[in-house]
Design goal:
Immunoglobulin-like; 0% helix; mainly beta; 5-stranded mixed sheet
């Protein structure tokens, strides 16, 4: 299993295996004053070989501050890999994940969201900046 793609979005949902998102790719947030709150969705698509169907995988989502320190506890999801009814033999399968996030941010700066699978050190990082004022 691997991360096919991952982005931050203002809003996203999965319906029927397809992702719908608004503001996909956002990486700059403005707050009226600090401390402030930012609201976004982490949206990711994972691909896996059909031989992996039936296996469980652990997906870890962690938010880091500007000094790369964890912000709160990581979110850990166990997903069971399965093939859809319309799966074509020999074709990779996929699963999409949408995680809403609401963060209290004490000061302006760069933060990041990391996604990893089964504690693999090759995490995908999605950086974002929080500033004071409208953007």
């Amino acid at each position: 299993m691997r991360v096919q793609w991952a982005v931050l979005a203002r809003y996203a949902e999965v319906n029927g295996g397809l992702v719908t998102m608004v503001g996909g790719g956002i990486d700059l947030f403005g707050v009226p004053a600090f401390p402030g709150t930012v609201d976004f969705h982490v949206v990711a698509n994972f691909r896996f070989h059909e031989a992996e169907a039936g296996a469980d995988r652990e997906i870890r989502l962690e938010i880091l501050d500007a000094e790369l320190r964890p912000v709160g506890a990581p979110a850990v999801f166990t997903v069971s890999l399965g093939l859809s009814d319309g799966h074509l033999e020999g074709w990779e399968a996929g699963i999409s994940l949408v995680v809403p996030c609401l963060l209290d941010i004490p000061a302006p700066g760069t933060h990041s969201v990391t996604l990893s699978i089964d504690d693999d050190a090759r995490a995908v990082a999605l950086p974002f900046m929080v500033v004071e004022g409208e953007v």
